[in-house]
Write a structure and sequence with these properties.
- The protein is built from 12 helices and 14 strands.
- The protein is of the alpha/beta class.
- A hairpin with a 5-residue loop joins strand 4 and strand 5.
- The longest helix is centred in the middle third of the chain and has 22 residues.
- About 45% of the residues are buried.
- Bound molecules: 6-O-phosphono-beta-D-fructofuranose.
- The site of 6-O-phosphono-beta-D-fructofuranose (F6P) has 13 residues, from strand 12.
- 6-O-phosphono-beta-D-fructofuranose binds next to strand 12.
């Protein structure tokens, strides 16, 4: 089966995340290294479903020269969409109403006509669900876990998460000084959909006074009492990090909008919490919504290297005959080692270093070749 692969496609779907271009970079270098052709599908699967809308019939041939300088850039050079489910494509009827239709057969046909032997789908839960369904329709698919939300099982981390957390932490750091100057409560709403990973990690790193996450419904009275105790103890201001999916005990998430063919958009909980805390603590309170700032901008060093490794890993999986799998990161948990062993390994030995793998994929020399 492996030897049949000569030409593959890569698609980026759903909300963008820092590190997407690094994945493309890694996949292209690895595929070209095997002598395969690799093409990018524009805007999720739109390029194949509606090729007339695009130059190059909706796909772009990815050569090393095209991706050499992209891994540090945010966004995706291929474009993406979170309205692009081929199984539930939204079309507008002549009367203006919108309906969902299943275009997956057309997509599979287009994929085959383009001569692709396999697909690398870079996406979160929605895109990977589609990828799995496409595999069931006969395509050979490998997934790469993307999302700032970090809400995928079986991988220690998705790429994009670290960049989002780093930026959120920097924002929280900045809010400390203005909050202290005005002796205010600052509420910071962060993305994350139905999970609290970004809020938890940024809130811990940013020394928040309270962190509200979907996994632990909150009592606003208890949060206010906690802040008031800290105010009485001599800390005159507070930082409260709220995940967009946080909800009160017995309550529900705040939904901003619902549209045909799209998952619901969350948001607004930060303003509500801020208003309630102002009332209950008597402190002037402001809300900052970080929103899409968490998705934009350059990936952190970790996400660049993780992205490149994931991209190359997907190609490696295909080359080994794997399909319907997702590349996942599985580092060991905390363990305890003798100090003597730790200090013996103080020097970086290139042959052992993780970076060597990334360097090889990217054709970076250490001066010994
Ligand atoms: O899944 C990533 C994410 O950024 C969520 O954290 C957020 O709820 C959602 O996407 C926002 O999506 P949109 O691009 O539709 O605003």
């Amino acid at each position: 089966m492996t030897e049949k692969i000569k030409r593959i496609a890569i698609a980026t779907g759903g909300g963008d995340a820092p590190g997407l271009n690094a994945v493309i970079h890694g996949a292209v270098y690895a595929a070209r290294g095997l002598g395969w052709e690799i093409f990018g599908i524009r805007d999720g699967y739109e390029g194949l479903l509606d090729p007339d809308r695009y130059a190059g019939a909706g796909v772009v041939e990815l050569r090393r020269s095209l991706v050499r300088e992209i891994s540090h850039l945010g966004g995706t050079i291929l474009g993406t969409t979170n309205r692009g489910n081929p199984f539930r494509r939204v079309v507008t009827r002549p009367d203006g109403t919108k309906v969902e239709i299943d275009c997956s057969d057309a997509l599979v046909n287009q994929f085959r006509q383009a001569g692709f032997d396999a697909l690398i789908s870079v996406g979160g839960d929605g895109s990977l669900t589609i990828a799995h369904q496409l595999q069931q329709k006969g395509l050979r698919v490998v997934g790469v876990p993307k999302t700032i939300d970090n809400d995928l099982e079986s991988t220690a981390m998705t790429f994009g998460f670290n960049s989002a957390v780093s930026f959120a932490t920097e924002c929280i750091d900045r809010l400390h000084t203005t909050a202290l100057s005005h002796q205010r409560v600052m509420v910071v709403e962060v993305m994350g959909r139905y999970v609290g990973w970004i809020a938890l990690h940024a809130g811990l790193a940013g020394r928040a006074d309270a962190i509200l996450i979907p996994e632990i419904p909150y009592s606003i009275e208890k949060v206010a009492a906690h802040l008031k105790r800290k105010h009485a103890d001599g800390k005159p201001y507070s930082i409260v990090v709220v995940a967009e999916g946080a909800k009160p005990v017995g309550g529900d998430v705040m939904v901003k909008s619902r549209e045909v063919g799209r998952v619901e958009r969350l948001g607004g909980i930060g303003e509500l919490v801020a208003a309630q805390l102002q009332e209950l603590t008597g402190k002037e309170t402001r809300c900052v919504v970080l929103g899409h700032l968490l998705r934009g901008g350059s990936p952190t060093a970790l996400d660049r290297n993780l992205g490149v490794t994931f991209g190359a890993g997907a190609v490696y999986a295909l080359s080994r005959g794997l399909e319907d799998v997702m590349v996942a990161l599985k580092p060991p948990k905390l363990v305890f080692v003798p100090i003597s062993e730790a200090i013996a390994k103080l020097k970086l030995v290139p042959a052992d270093a993780e970076g060597v793998l990334v360097a090889r994929i990217l054709d970076i020399s250490f001066g010994d070749q």
